[in-house]
Each structure stands twice: as C-alpha cells, then as structure tokens.
Fold:
Amino acid sequence: MKKIVKLGIIGLGARGETLLATLFEFNREEVLVSAICDVKQERIDKFHQIMKDHDYPLATAYTDYRQLIASDDVDAVLIPTSWNSHLRIAEEAMRNGKYAGIEVGGASSLDELWHLVRAAESTGVSCMMLENCCYGRNELLSLNLARQGLFGELIHCSCGYEHDLSEMAHLGNREEREVHNFRRNCDLYPTHGIGPLAKILRINRGNRFMTLTSTASKGRGFAKEAEKAGRGHVVYNIGDVITTVIKCANGETITMTHCVSLPRPYSRDFRVQGTKGLFLEDTKSVFIEGISTTREEIDVAGNPYTVHEWTPVEEVYEKYDHPIWKKFRENIVGGHGGMDALTLSAFCDAVRNHTPTPIDVYDCAAWMSLTCLSEESIAMGSMPVAVPDFTDGKWIYETVGCPGKWSLDEVYDED
Structure:
C-alpha cells in the first residue's frame, strides 16, 4: 500500500477547481486534499460543496496560507494563485519543508527566481512547475525520437503560445491575465512551449540558455476588442506578436512566439529539428530519414532533385510513442487531455518518495526568466540579454535529475 500524499491547495479559482477535478479522477486511495486556502470565503464554500458532491472528505480550510503551510497535516502544496504571488508562497512552503507545485506563467523579476532557487537548495525539498505540456503526447513522442537519435544532432527548435484570448479585453475588470497584458510588453506565457524543448535540449543538464533577443510588434488586437465591447479606446502595452530568439550553449537556436490578441487557431508551434529529421506540430507530422518517404524526380530542365514527404504522426505512434503514453492512451483521465493527471502523478510520486521532481527549481527559474528577460530586451530596442545560470555551473555536467518513468530527461520503460 502506497503512502497517502496529503496535499494543500492554495488559491481556489478556476485553475484550482481544474486541479481538484483531476484529483477526483485518479488514485483517490493514494492522494488526499487535506487542506485548502483562499482569501475569499465564497471560494472555500464552493470547494467544500464540490467535495460533498463527490463524497470526498472535507479539507481543513484556511484564509491565511501561512497557517496551511505550517500544518503537519500537509505534505506538499499546489499553488494556483496569481503570477505575482505564487513564487513567494512556494518559497515559504519550501522553507516549511513542503514540496511546492507552482502553476505556469513567467516571472516578474530575476530576484524572485533566485529566492526560489536558494530556498530549494537550502531545504532539500523541491519546487516543481506543473507544466503539463511536458507530458503532452507529441512532446513526449519527440523526446523519445530525440533520445533514440532519429532526429540526428539537434539544430533548431521553435515553440510558442498562440491562442486567441482577445475577448479578455471585453471584461475590463483587470483580472490576472488582462492586467499583465495591459501593463507589460514581453512573452508572458513561455513555459508551455519552452518546457518540453528545454528537456529535449538538455537545458541545465549539459546545456543551457545563453542569450536572447526579443521583439514586439505593434499592438492592435486587444484595443480592437475593447472598442467592440464599448470600453472606448484602451491602450495595451503588449505587442500582438512577441518574437524571441534564444541561443544555447551547445549551439542550438530556439524561436519562441507569443500571440494572444489576434484571431487564429490554437498552436504551441512546437518544432524539433535535427540533421536527420524533424517533428512539426502544425502539420501533425514528422520527417525522418530512413522512415519517411523520399523520392527522386526530374525538373523541367531535366535535373534530378529529391522530394521529401511528411509522415503523419499517427503512423509513428505505435512504434515510437513514449512508454508513458503507451500505457496511458487507453485510459485518459483529468484535464487538458490527460496531461494534468500525468503531471500531478509525477509530482505526488516525488513527494511520496522524497525524490527530485522531474521539473526542478532550476527548470522553473530558467523557463520563467524568459518573461522578464524578453521584457528587458524589448525595452532596449531588441538588444541581446544574457540569461543567468541559475545552477551556478552545475549545468556543465550531463545529469538525469529524476531517473524513472516520470523522467523528462531520459526515456525509461517501467511499470
């Protein structure tokens, strides 16, 4: 019988509800939400009602998160609070000996990231970003293909967060996302894209981000939507398209795009390209030498040339699906197509066994720093900006942070 992991949830908004719903759907016998916290009593009451409706034990409720993280009835905390508060709370949780699971979004300053790193280093407990896209099917497929050498030597990657959220300008209530888009000009939401790529490129484990440049287009999308909603002329600081280029220590380049204010289908613009092939999200396909079709044709001048054909990703799942998805694909549960359940399982297993989390504090710091660094580059006319080495040199050694089935560094086929 596995030890029951007792979780506290701090921040009971929409994301907190999604996490709770996912926890209802898997391993109830192994994970218990023993405490909840929010400054608004109505949210606490709502969570208690949801728990009653699901015949779930009522969690102890707090309005002060400090009391929750001091509780002996909590092993770890999930912190789906605002982008400006979750890092501070995570730091305090670790200093109280609690593992901290933080949500995605970029940082506002490098200082708060250094505080997070030092808290983890001095206490020996982990902070894990609950970056669920790292456990996406195609992201893990690409990790598997890369580790098997099928892409060859990695050369270039791209990623992004391209999602039409322009209707937030209709609200006018300055909620979390809108207020950051209103005040700031940067890549606010880098981790969905950069997280999986960082793992594939071994960032912090034999490689690291060295420098970046970032450029913002003019911004018109949010203003258009605000006017449509009758709010008049509202000026948002953020550009409609933010383009960031990162150079890595081992020579790879990454292009990162943020676009949330213009009409378009959703995309994470995920691309992994090497000397032998690539995966491309927007075509839902791969090209791999020796696997994909290649044929010779003759042009109108009689000269031979080679034609490479895409292989639909569905055709490579059976052989190259990551072991996690081979086991999981027939019984998907939880939010975001099952990614939430996988991420929470990985976090809870680390808490249960008191082992490193597959996304550690150095990952959190490196990925989240791209927001404030892109902000700095844009403010200086797209000047290059150095990315700090949050590992203090430990990145030089190629290591595996979390051996086992949940690893995002290597691929393990374990039950």
User: Anything to note?
Assistant: The CA atoms of residues 365 and 383 lie 21 Å apart. The mean pLDDT is 95. The first strand starts at residue 5 and ends at 10.
